[in-house]
Amino acid sequence: MKISTRARYGIRALLDLALNDDKERILLKDIAQRQEISLPYLEHLITPLITKGIVRSTRGSRGGISLRRRPEEIRLNEVVEILEGSIAPVECVDDPKICPRSEFCVTRDLWDEMKRAMN
Amino acid sequence: MKISTRARYGIRALLDLALNDDKERILLKDIAQRQEISLPYLEHLITPLITKGIVRSTRGSRGGISLRRRPEEIRLNEVVEILEGSIAPVECVDDPKICPRSEFCVTRDLWDEMKRAMN
DNA sequence: ACATTCCTAACTAATATAGTATACATAATA
DNA sequence: TATTATGTATACTATATTAGTTAGGAATGT
Question: Rounded to an integer, what distance in angstroms lies between the CA atom of residue A102 and that of residue B102?
Answer without folding.
Answer: 40
